[in-house]
Amino acid sequence: MNPRIDRRDRTIVSQAFRNVRGEWSPDRVVADPVLNRRFAAECRQLGLGADVRTCNRILLNLRKAGHLAGLRSRRTSFPNQDDYEFASEIAIRFLERRDGVTLDDVICDPARAAEFDELAARIAPGYTPLQYRWAALSLRKSRRLPAEPIGRAIPPISVVQERADRINLADVPAAQGLYIFFAGSECLYIGEAQNLRIRLKKHLDHSDNRGLARWLWKHGDEALYVEWQVLPPTTETPTRKAMERELIRSRRPVFNVVRSGARSRAAGGETNP
Q1: Judgement on whether residues 85 and 57 belong to the same structural domain of the protein
Q2: Residue 266 domain flag
Q3: How far is 249 from 183, CA to CA, in rounded Å?
Q4: I want to staple 192 with a disulfide (CB 3.0 to 4.6 A). Which of 8, 174, 225, 244 is the partner?
Q5: Contact, 172 vs 246, CB < 8 A?
């Protein structure tokens, strides 16, 4: 790429940002749908032909490189963020795993960001796109959105998320993979299986994980969501189990127990088909 064009693009993006920002930060301008539309229009007005995703990427890169460090910004915060933060985490984790993308990839791309908003709203409805996006950015800033490197090293064939009472088991592949049960603000249980269809049927009929079974008996499956990740058929069992352990460490499910040493395993003493 021509470096002179790069410098010109950076100059235009920087000026467009300054023209529309008011007192807001680069992250706020990218994450806020209203401000972002103004920013994209200003980039076009100043002669930049790049798409919105590229403009947003350039802006974030300018911020990360320290080129906007002299600008003071108002602090963005929302009341009761804890009420929907969990939905933002679930939504971004889902997209990360399904599409192999990062939070910046999602926030910078209007189409991906809109899908993220829809996923988060399905889990915790009643909030704005900006609130969902800002919650995800806040999680990362506070280091509560740790990377899951093994999962990135072995991309899934598919990732599906569905409410438990709407699952048609015939649609669940009889293939190996990982699965996650969650409800409201809690990640409940994470497991791995040689056959996802058989394993999920067992859990939904009568889970042999006592904690999850009690939860289902008390609350039913209408408030429960399940995510399953189909792994490549060449994935070896030790690798699959290592991915499960990493998910448990990262997401801290309520009904899993991680024990140190050679006997480490998920709670429940289950043997996965």
Answers
A1: no
A2: no
A3: 18
A4: 244
A5: no
